[in-house]
Amino acid sequence: MADVLAFAELRDGQLGATAREAVGVAATIAESLGGRAHALVLGSPGVSEGANALGTVGAASIRVGEHEALGEYNPEGFVDLVVAHIRAGDYAAVVFGATTLGKDLAPRVAALLDVPLATDVTAVSVDGGTLSITRPVFSGKAFATLQLDATPAIVSIRPNVFQPADRPTEAEVTSFTPDIDPSKWRVRVVGRKAATEGQLDVSEASIIVSGGRGMKDPSNWNLLEGLRSAMGSGTALGASRAVVDAGWRPHGEQVGQTGKTVAPKLYVAVGISGAIQHLAGMRTAKTIVAINRDADAPIFGVADYGIVGDLFEVVPRLTEEIARLKAGD
Q1: For residue 195, is pLDDT > 70?
Q2: Which of 138, 167, 263, 270 has its CB 3.0 to 4.6 Å from that of 58, i.e. a possible disulfide?
Q3: Is 277 strand, coil or helix?
Q4: Shared-domain flag, residues 151 and 24
């Protein structure tokens, strides 16, 4: 009972950073417990191809459930399969990503297993065989360290916080066809509205350029788009709640307590005052740069670097300098 399971989430039918991070954390916990990391993948037929890549971050056993009905996330279908797999494997811990999907699935799994769930985890360790976790509390103003003595210990990890280490493992990949009856499901996906094609989701970006009410008008977002382009691939646009509520930007870009929680390598806050709800969603970014004309803006309290000035002067100059440096490379 020292093995640890990672739910390897698919995004657009592919195993991405979220799956690798979950497996990496599972491998870290399993190593401390003297067990192995396992991974569970659920998707449409064909997803088993490439699943062995999870072995590079420590998955020793990878089970892939393939069914046409699993091509889209369905809470009823997924939760039953995950719970059955956990019970059969007798795992010490289970790791999910704290993504939109993970935030829906993990609580359902924990409820059916009648065990507690630690969400939005930013650090894990094993102390005397017991899993200890760290997670933000009070809208990110403090961090709590908790011990989970339940079996299995279920956690969901904040995206982009855990960088999986290289753990080349000879992974055993097995696929199966779940015995499910989608006609009995009470919830069905009838359509999907995707974000703008080619636009990177803020929850997966390593760099985020985010704007607030200081941008004054949605037509000024071209300044941030230029900065994003100068910074290159891996950069996404974000927005404060006030901007989204005003209809300037889509909800998918909202960062904060009622939006998306992010932890990029670099977060550039432009014209954002730093309300506590916004800070709760981005203060765990590795480096924070704030640009605001108000020297007393709360955002400067969490920023690693701050520029007090007119963003309409600072951002174009910053974009030019970054582009110049990139051209020099």
Answers
A1: no
A2: 167
A3: helix
A4: yes
